[in-house]
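2024-03-11 09:14:02 INFO worker-7 job=invfold-0412 stage=load source=structure_tokens
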């Protein structure tokens, strides 16, 4: 059992696989075997001197509870059996700032249908926890089609978050209100998200490629008080004006009190072209001066189960349904995935290609907890430049690169030796998700992007805003397979008759 990211605290069952769309046969951690006779020796193999944060955490667990965990399989089994102390010890190991006082992690005598509370009476702030990087280190590196970049340090990020957070408070936003973003994957979007969480508001976002009806189907349900948005976006080197779409969205959201418009393309904004123009304000004008931000800034301490993000189901069977994720559960799950499974450190830089309508965006943002840098790119990954993601990864010296599996399929079809064109030697992890990563793509990544890189095919879903399974530096990479179930994830596969299923499409619980 994992921490409660969702407010309903339900076990997850998906037909065929995960909510990410992965329909490959589910392999449990018990199915993972070391490669025989060097069959996969050309892929990543854990070195003898490995000293990841996962192993450091395991040694602490072994000493504290006087147990011997011989391998990842043992550690996973222990984490599922002792899930309460596993998550509590992770809080301490990761130094998550948790206030208040809780008497127990969870009442294990209660059934899942009783909605047991985790870390009851504990408090925290998501934004405060994530802003751990050193002032002068880069927090965000925004890249563009011409490979030019703009860097914002942690000091600049904190300043902007507090200035927007203060502006939101001055606008009457309080804990429990909802703020929405109809935004590209940009620095300003991250500032708006973190500022919302800083004052205890709930964040909800949609991708700018959604039609107005799709946006309204989602945002109407949460009744946002403030909307952050942009006037236009560029894609495939073309400018797309959002004025008409935005007017329809604003007309359909009577709860809106203010629309904060980001001038992301540095063009002149004609506010008169918008419906309810009196509600519009420029992002830079909305920010209060730094001199008006109290020092220290007050980061609202919210209950562990306080709603942080509202996500949505796909909408294939009607209007998309809200999925509410808690502050503590989301942070704790993401910290486990980035810090423990991913061994992320302050020197790491991650480029993960995603829109703000995909749960991978929220997952990516939490990477800042590790003190590293996020590289942002929101334009087309293939047109007009099919090499752009690899060029940016090389220029920014990324150590972690991620995208949907279908993009790796496209790279495989290109049959280009990227490693001979660009310096990708800093890469130590390549993430893939959204659908099964084909064995041929594993081979292409290993042969033509970075040899012996950890290829982490991760599988999870919007319903848990995280992963069930994925990668670990403690295990070898086997083409076509997820390496392991994640720690704390008690996942089993069953067929339609409720029998244990292996090597076939199945339900996971």
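2024-03-11 09:14:09 INFO worker-7 stage=emit residues=509
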């Amino acid at each position: 059992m994992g921490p409660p990211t969702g407010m309903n605290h339900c076990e997850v069952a998906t037909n065929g696989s995960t909510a990410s769309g992965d329909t490959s046969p589910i392999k449990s951690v018990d199915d993972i075997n070391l490669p025989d006779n060097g069959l996969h020796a050309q892929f990543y193999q854990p070195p003898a001197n490995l000293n990841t944060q996962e192993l450091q955490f395991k040694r602490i667990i072994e000493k504290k509870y006087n147990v011997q965990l011989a391998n990842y399989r043992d550690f996973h089994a222990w984490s599922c059996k002792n899930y309460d102390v596993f998550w509590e010890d992770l809080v301490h190991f990761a130094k998550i700032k948790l206030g208040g006082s809780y008497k127990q992690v969870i009442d294990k005598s209660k059934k899942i249908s009783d909605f047991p509370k985790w870390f009851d009476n504990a408090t925290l702030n998501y934004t405060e926890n994530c802003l751990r990087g050193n002032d002068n280190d880069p927090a965000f590196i925004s890249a563009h089609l011409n490979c030019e970049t703009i860097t914002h340090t942690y000091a600049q990020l904190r300043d902007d978050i507090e200035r927007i957070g203060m502006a939101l408070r001055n606008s009457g936003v309080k804990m429990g209100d909802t703020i929405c973003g109809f935004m590209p994957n940009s620095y300003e979007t991250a500032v708006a998200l973190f500022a919302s969480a800083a004052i205890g508001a709930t964040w909800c976002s949609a991708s700018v490629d959604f039609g107005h009806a799709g946006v309204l189907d989602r945002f109407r349900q949460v009744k946002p008080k403030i909307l952050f948005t942009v006037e236009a976006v560029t894609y495939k080197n073309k400018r797309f004006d959002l004025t008409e779409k935005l007017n329809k969205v604003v007309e359909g959201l009577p709860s809106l009190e203010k629309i904060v418009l980001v001038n992301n393309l540095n063009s002149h904004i004609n506010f008169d072209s918008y419906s309810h123009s009196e509600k519009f304000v420029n992002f830079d004008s909305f920010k209060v001066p730094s001199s008006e931000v109290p020092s220290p800034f007050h980061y609202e301490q919210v209950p562990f189960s306080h709603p942080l993000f509202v996500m949505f189901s796909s909408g294939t069977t009607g209007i998309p349904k809200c999925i509410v994720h808690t502050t503590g559960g989301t942070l704790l799950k993401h910290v486990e995935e980035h810090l423990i499974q991913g061994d992320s450190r302050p020197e790491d830089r991650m480029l993960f290609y995603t829109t703000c309508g995909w749960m991978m965006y929220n997952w990516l943002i939490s990477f800042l907890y590790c003190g590293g840098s996020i590289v942002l790119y929101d334009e087309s990954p293939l047109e007009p430049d099919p090499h752009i993601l690899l060029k940016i990864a090389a220029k920014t010296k990324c150590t972690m690169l991620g995208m949907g599996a279908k993009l790796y399929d496209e790279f495989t079809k290109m049959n280009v030796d990227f490693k001979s064109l660009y310096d990708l030697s800093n890469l130590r992890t390549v993430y893939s998700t959204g659908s099964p990563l084909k064995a041929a793509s594993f081979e292409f990544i290993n042969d033509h992007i970075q040899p012996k890189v950890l290829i982490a095919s991760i599988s999870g879903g919007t319903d848990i805003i995280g992963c069930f399974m994925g990668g670990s530096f403690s295990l070898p990479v086997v083409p076509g397979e997820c390496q392991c179930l994640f720690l704390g994830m008690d996942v089993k596969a069953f067929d339609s008759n409720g029998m244990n299923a292996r090597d076939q499409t199945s339900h996971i619980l």
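2024-03-11 09:14:09 INFO worker-7 stage=report msg="The CA atoms of residues 428 and 453 lie 5 Å apart."
2024-03-11 09:14:10 INFO worker-7 job finished
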